[in-house]
Amino acid sequence: MRLAWVFLGSLGRRRAATLLSFAAIVLGVALGMAVQAVNQAALAEFGRGLRTLAGAADLQVVGPRTGFDEALYARLAARPEVAQASPVLEVRTERIGTTDTLNILGLDLFAVGAVTPALLARPVEIDDRAERESRLTSLAEDSVFLSAAAQTALAVQPGDRLSVYAGSQPLELRVAGDLPGAAEDRRLAVMDIAAVQNHFDRIGRLTRIDLKLVEGLDVQAARAALEPLLPAGVWLEVPQAAEGQASNLSRAYRVNLTLLAAMALITGAFLVFSAQALSVVRRHTELAFLRAIGLARRQLFVWLLAEGALVGLLGAVVGVALGHGLAFGLLELLGGDLGAGFFSGLSPSLRFDPWASGLYVLLGVGAGVAGAWLPARDAADIAPAQALKASDDSALSQRRGHPRLGLALMLMSLPLCALPPIMELPLGGYLAIFGLLAGSILWLPMLASGFARILPLWGPVPVRLAAARLRAAPGMGAVAATGVLASVALVVAMAIMVNSLRDSVDVWLGQILPADLYLRAGRVQSGGVLDEALQARLADVPGVAHVEFTRHDSLRLVPGQPPVALLARPVSSDGRELPLVGSAHAVAEGETAIWISEALHDLQGWRPGDRVQLPLAGSEVSVRVTGIWRDYARQTGSLMLDLADYRRLTGDRSVQDAAIWLTPGADAFSVAEALKSAGGSGALEVTAPGEIRAISLRIFDRTFAVTYVLEAAAVIIGLAGVAASFAALAAARRREFGLLRHLGLTRGQIGGLLALEGSLAAGIGILGGLTVGGAIAWILIEVVNRQSFHWSMDLSVPWLSLLVFAGTLAGLASLAAVLAGRQAMRQDAVLAVREDW
Amino acid sequence: MHRRTCLLALAGLPLPRILAAVEPSAGSNGAETDSKVAFDAVLPGRVLRFPDDEGAHPGFRTEWWYVTGWLKGTEGDPFGFQITFFRVRTGIGEDNPSAFAPRQLLLAHAAIADPRLGRLRHDQRAARTGFERAGYATDRAHVRLDDWSFEQMDDHYVTRVNAEDFAYDLRLAFTGPPMFNGDQGFSRKAPDPYHASYYYSRPQLQVDGQVTLDGRRQAVSGRAWMDHEWSSAYSPEGADGWDWVGLNLDDGGALMAFRMRRPDGTALWASATRRFSDGRTQSLGPEQVEWFPIRRWQSPRTGIEYPIEWDLRIGERRYRLQPLMDDQELDSRRSTGTIYWEGAMRLFEDEREIGRGYLEMTGYGNRIQVG
Fold first, then answer.
1. Are residues A193 and A339 in the same domain?
2. Is the whole-model pTM more than 0.90?
3. Distance CA A568, CA A549 (A)
4. pLDDT, average across residues A354-369
5. pLDDT tens digit string along B292-304?
6. Is A734 in a helix, a strand, or coil?
7. Given A637, A658, A687, which residue is the final one in a domain?
8. Inter-chain contact B93–A135, Cβ cutoff 8 Å?
9. Residue B100 and residue A78: Cβ atoms within 8 Å?
């Protein structure tokens, strides 16, 4: 155990380097843990909510967002397979005067008990009301029952009034009670189904039917028997399917974040590597002595690994704790989807998952061990006698890396990029990124010496010395450059990708929002519609030159998959106003053209020119895919068709949105006011495209906030790597500096030498990082994003930012090198030389 | 008479208090309280016509078809059964075009009093009318709620019940004309004539059919009683419970008696109808009907004490009522929170059994939320 002090104690003697390695591992583990914990919490909450809603239902009938005909309910309820059928009409509405949205479930309270008892309403007695009145509360047309979480969120209590929009009309509701069975943190609102149908103008419509089958009946058998009764676009699903859909939806986002965290962890491993490598060099004599007095080669190796493992373990334990703290903060700030919008309306609570935490601790230890592996092997390989006689750092200096392995890894990345997604994840892309990063690091010493060879050997002594050193011992520089390369590559890749996406989204918003004003029936998604009379009134508002209306719906093309958005709006026959990808396919006379988003193209395999079936208004309609358009808004796919076609096929003449072009000279503000008053009661929301754009980009930036945090972390890690490397290098070279002082170099000159070496090493790392980062950015854009989110983007490199970033980093690196070497420079030259002889 | 009890009982299902809402609130004047909805009023002098009046009267606030009786299988002892369908006009959604509009609700309640089990088995259903799941006819007795139904065919009723742990399918044949309670079917509930109902009974129904108990199906036969009553203003102020009895006499006669009970146990109102074996019917007023509790039984579940043996004075005659079994308390606290006693009874006169029927007692536990 005395050996433990010799080895593990050495970590304490080089505090700065140990702390940095530790910090890097803490960061990597913490980020990964936070992403994992937050997502786990959100998914668990989402799943629990779904189970509350589904209750004891064996099957659920689901359809498009606008729902389906209620006659299906009577047909299904009468079937012998069905023990109880519970009809559901869900509408989304908005509280007047606020931005609070509320999903109201219209239920038949008589059918709910047997299927979804958690949704049973409990009237609360209210003193000032006639007793008789309060008894029929459950059915009253203005009664709404709110779960505890919804009451908290809306700051209302039973007995209070709640004003919401029903379509474009205000509707006064009374909070009549609560939902004692609802999960605590679930925001739910329940009303009588007849009241919802009436108030929200959805007479005859249902959005879901929950079915409880007769006991002992096989779900699949029942499904086979009931499926033929369903109209087109309406499906039977087992309630768990929705949970899976939500999980899949957020999985790509989650995996991407986790991989970013993994990169931070890998950077941490590099830091351990550089610290250990230099520490081993410094302890050359000490280690040789230990070998000489009988420590076995194997033991030495294991003890050196243990040093890395200890740093990894400490970092990981602290990282897991920090990760949970971070997750808590993120949940409070951004919500369960880290701002990405997958789980709105949830207030998840954090839970400690011992298995996931254990895994992250293991990953941290693994990073530490992996970083310590090569230096430990080098140290174990030294011949004790020789090392004792001539203590120097030759072993490390002579390392030339593994250029062949590096080249092979980099070449391997190319075919990996061509792999299709595996389990809907871009695993090939991730492997390619890993190959590029690892390959380039193995190649770095080669790059360094090549770089040194082209450096001219002239100028002042420090410059020549620095160049000569890099040329003679590229391994040294490579160690310092490793961390820089990894972090620069990560930053550059993310910066290029995010910049490309942001620019593409910006351009796309411009294409998709060409009008002067946009109008919609509140923020309401399913409640608010503009009826025909209102449409005519809007078109007649003075100052309005031209109006285009949009109808939104969602279709279920395949059971078990999330619904696909449908947008019906005026579209020209060549789709020139759409952000098209590729060229359009001409449509023959009499055919209905649809324009599909890239996601739909990827998920359904539809191509321009294909003839496909769409479930519209309960029956299959044959349409022709005309072109593909870019849609950053709807990840599960969307399709667009001409509003006239939609009206012809469905007979539905209502719309939700209007795009308005003004007559020349008209004042946008006064026209907006006139449009709002045309709807009456403030139910219409009119916005300028600039506003929508600003909001969209704000949401975008929030979504990528996490990646900015990671980028900043990577830069700090990279700089820390330079500082750590040079602190260790400078310490190891004390006698060299002493000799140089003896030969007449001033302290300033040695400082310049160090700064130059630092810049050179960092420069190599930065150059390599820029190149590799560019390549990784390409993989992120063309492979990872395309396969994860099904959207393409145009490459846009933020040259100026990258240039500033690279320059700053090089400057900071030389500063770090000087600061790190100051200690060595301060030392008495005579003493430093004598120490080693 | 059992209406309110059952209404309360059923109320629990999904709609905690809807049933109780059938009652106009204390101090209000019933039908007139609803400014939007005008319920039909119960007025004296209306002549009940058949079969139309066997059907539903949707203009009134509340209505029930209530069947009780004694059955005997091929083996074992006799047991009691009960099935009730309630119709409730809520006054809600009268102008709502939705097919789900809860204008009319149907509620059903069924029970079996089996001495071998020693307590009641019971089950209940509730639904709004519509979607072919629940409905009623207005030209004859026909109400149904999913797979529960009560239907009139010419000279008999058919009723089917599929409850959680029992089921029955019974044919109830008429043996005579309906028996009008009160003044030719106009039945007062209080000194104030405003609280009244239309009320007729069909005693001495000859029952044949099948009963499934514990998964075993058996053929049964027996005698039953059917009450049909409808009103818009039923329960008077000042009564917090009632006692009701309907009995088929062995000589072919029948006896119905009820009293509305004040909190202190005295009668606010009482009434009885007696049919003799020759078909003559006699209607008796409050002063001719008296109830004397003889033996009490305390429920081990709820701690409530019920008078389960009674002496009855109807006009000049005295009867003794004894239960089929003591424990016929209906404890539905878990689903509805209401508790009452409703069970099969034997009728004695001079120590001799002369008939069988059902007794219902409400308001003995303070948990019953009345009025």
1. no
2. no
3. 8
4. 88
5. 999 999 988 888 8
6. helix
7. A687
8. no
9. no
Domain hosting A267: range is 1-55+244-377
Q: Go through A358-395 and write b for each residue having 16 or more CB atoms within 10 A of its CB, e for each that does not.
A: eebbebbbbbbbbbbbebbebbbebebeebbeebebeb
Residues A635 and A601 in one domain: yes
Chain A residues closer than 8 Å to B18 by CB: 135-136, 138-139
Count of the separate structural domains present in chain A: 3
Residues A73 and A217 in one domain: yes
Q: Which residue has the tokens 């003890």?
A: A303
- A642: tokens are 């001409």
Residues A203 and A278 in one domain: no
The amino acid sitting at A24 is A
Q: Which residues of A719-757 are buried (b: 16+ CB within 10 A; e: fewer)?
A: bbbbbbbbbbbbbbbbbbbbebbeeebeeebbbbbbbbb
d(CA B86, CA B4): 10
Instruction: Tell me the residue type at A122.
Output: R
Q: Write out pLDDT tens, residues B9-61.
A: 333 333 333 343 344 433 333 333 444 678 888 888 888 998 899 999 999 98
SS3 content of chain B, % helix, strand, coil (to 5): 5, 55, 40
Tell me the angle at which helices A354-381 and A15-54 cross, rounded to the nearest 10 degrees.
150
pLDDT at B21: 37
pLDDT, average across residues B162-167: 88
Q: Are B248 and B203 in contact (CB under 8 A)?
A: yes
Residues of B in contact with A192 (CB under 8 A): 100, 102
- Type of residue numbered A535: Q
Helix, coil or strand: residue B25: coil
Same domain, residue pair A225 and A253: no
For the stretch A561-588, pLDDT in tens is: 778 888 898 988 888 888 888 887 877 7
Q: Which amino acid makes up residue B291?
A: W
State whether A321 and A181 are in the same domain: no
Domain boundary (A345, A377, A409) is at A377
- Within a domain: A357: yes
CATH number for region B3-25+50-361: 2.40.370.10
Cβ neighbour number for residue B38 with a 10 Å cutoff = 13
Contact list in A for residue B28 (CB cut-off 8 A) is 130, 132
In a domain, A600, yes or no: yes
- Please name which of A654, A663, A697, A643 lies closest in space to residue A521, comparing C-alpha atoms: A654
Instruction: Compare all CA atoms of chain B with the CA of A83 and give the residue at the minimum distance.
Output: B146
Q: Does A225 share its domain with A346?
A: no
- Nearest neighbour of B99 by CB, restricted to A70, A130, A136: A70
* Cβ–Cβ < 8 Å for B111, B82: yes
Q: What are φ and ψ of residue B270, in 5° steps?
A: -150, 155
Residue located via tokens 């939705």: B98
Half-sphere exposure of A487 (CA within 13 A, CB side): 33
Structural contact between residues B48 and B180, judged by C-beta atoms closer than 8 angstroms = yes
Residue of A nearest to B132 (CA): A74
Asked if the structure places residue A116 within a domain, the reply is yes
| CA distance linking residue A754 with residue A815, whole number of Å | 9
Domain positions in chain B are 3-25+50-361
